[in-house]
Amino acid sequence: MDELDRLFGLLVVALARETRVAVPFPAAEVYERLVPYRSNRSRLNVATHQDYEMAVLRLLAGERGYVQLEPESVRDAMQREIATINPDAAYFRSFPDAQVMVNGRAAERALKADRVYAPPSDADEEDLLDTTGENPIPAPGSPVRFRVGRPPDPLSENQCEYCGGVLPLNRDARFCPHCGQPREGDLKCPACGSAVDVGWAYCLSCGKPTGFE
């Protein structure tokens, strides 16, 4: 299982909580509300924000058939971008209103806690949901019924939302002592204030040590 599988799993769980697995939604909801980077970084096990964006781009481009993006021209554009030598990981942000349809069988597997999680087979393409009507219906065949598995245990207030490390209760912890992430706001270079990420030994803007390795 890689970051794409984990991203899809978290997306389906988030949609299932709102009983919206079978309802198309704007692509922007994936990264802005349903599975945002900041609150899901540790669960996705991605090293940088760019890795997260690349996973979102792969998902929306239709890799492994997890979702289908409409219109088709947007989906094709994302697939062409991924195929380039140096793809723009944030390319999907140019199409926030494109509609995302979740693969029914893939979603069902992701929600079953007692089954091994796996990408959909070619036959699952038939289970992509129809968006032609006001109330989307499953594609021809037996309707897919979703069974919601037990959601991940929430982190306690004294746990870092990135790495899950325990924070000292009797200290004003502005940063996690385990991974260096701040409790609030984006991680900044202590020298110039530019945005940096965990694992960066030096700032991209000023070249000074970040101290957030």
Describe the structure in brief:
This protein is mainly alpha-helical and 213 residues long. 29% of the residues lie in helices and 5% in strands. The protein folds into 2 domains: 3-127, no CATH class; 166-213, no CATH class.
Give structural notes.
By secondary structure, the protein is mainly alpha-helical. About 30% of the residues lie in helices and about 5% in strands. The protein has helices spanning about 5-15, 30-35, 35-45, 50-60, 70-80, 105-110, and strands at about 25, 65-70, 100. The protein has a three-stranded antiparallel beta sheet. It starts with a helix and ends in a 102-residue tail after the last helix. Residues about 115-120, about 130-140 and about 145-150 have low confidence and may be disordered.
Helices, strands, pairings?
Layout lengths: L2 H15 L7 E2 L1 H7 L2 H8 L4 H12 L6 E4 L1 H11 L16 E4 L1 H8 L102
Antiparallel strand pairs: 1-3, 2-3
Helix pairs in contact: 1-4
What features would you highlight for this structure?
about 210 residues; mainly alpha; 6 helices; globular; about 30% helix
Q: Tell me the radius of gyration.
A: 19 Å
Which ranges are low-confidence, i.e. pLDDT below 50, for 5 or more consecutive residues?
A: 113-118, 129-142, 146-152
Strand content: under 5%
Largest sheet: 3 strands, antiparallel
Mean pLDDT: 75
| Order of strands across the main sheet | 1-3-2
What is the β-strand count? Answer: 3
Report helical residue fraction. Answer: 25-40%
**What's the helix-strand series?**
HEHHHEHEH
Structural class per helix/strand content?
A: mainly alpha
How far the N terminus sits from the C terminus, by CA atoms, comes to 25 Å
Structure annotation, total helices: 6
How many discrete domains?
2
* Net shape: globular
